[in-house]
Design a protein that fits this description.
201 residues; alpha+beta; Peptide Deformylase; five-stranded antiparallel beta sheet; three-stranded antiparallel beta sheet; 8 strands; 28% strand; globular; binds zinc ion
Length: 201
């Protein structure tokens, strides 16, 4: 019943001058306390609603919908394997409160990223390929695990949002980057080539 009354919140977008509260994207979000306050519960419900109703959304963080709180949500469904060569781990919808991560290897990998808080832009950024992560569910129960490849990237991207970091802040000057249309074309041809190469191995 409450679900039906919910609406999508507009995203806070760093490169949209009409967004009043863009600062929220570049500052550290607040730690959440347990048991959740009514307000935090509502933010959590909104984030879940938004995530479930968004197309092609791998993950979201509370500051993206205007709340400076340490809450993220993400999933890696089976289909991700079709367009991410390193989507080894799949995971169902996971909400993490006060999440943190630690790299389990120094190795990093470059891959494409985009974000609902960055309008029409994407680029290649380096992320750790193997991380340990932990956080809490809505009831304050600890959740922890290891993530590799794309899931590790996703967790780092979302936790970055809680620390005021967007993927554009990690773009090296020589990194490939561009509008979504430009990078889509590049990614498509690269993916084909990689799939062909791995088929021949
Ligand atoms: Zn993002």
């Amino acid at each position: 019943m409450i679900q039906e009354e919910k609406k999508m919140f507009p995203y806070v977008i760093i490169n949209n001058e009409n967004c009043q509260n863009r600062d929220i994207l570049i500052k550290a979000a607040e730690e959440v306390t347990f048991p959740l306050t009514k307000e935090d519960r509502e933010i959590t419900e909104q984030l879940i609603y938004q995530f479930r109703h968004e197309e092609n959304c791998a993950g979201l963080a509370a500051p993206q919908i205007g709340f400076s709180k340490r809450i993220i949500i993400f999933s890696v469904p089976e289909e991700t394997k079709e367009h991410r060569v390193d989507a080894f781990d799949t995971i169902s919808e996971t909400l993490l409160i006060n999440p943190t991560f630690k790299p389990l290897s120094d190795k990093k990998r470059l891959d494409w990223e985009a974000c609902f808080s960055v309008n029409d832009y994407g680029g290649e950024v380096e992320r750790f390929i193997h991380v340990y992560y932990e956080g809490f569910d809505i009831n304050g129960k600890e959740i922890k695990g290891e993530a590799k490849g794309f899931l590790a990237r996703l967790i780092q991207h979302e936790i970055g949002h809680l620390n005021g970091q967007l993927f554009i802040h990690l773009l090296k000057p020589n990194a490939r980057q561009g509008t979504l249309e430009e990078i889509r074309a590049v990614r498509r041809s690269e993916l084909e080539a990689m799939k062909k190469a791995s088929a021949q191995e």
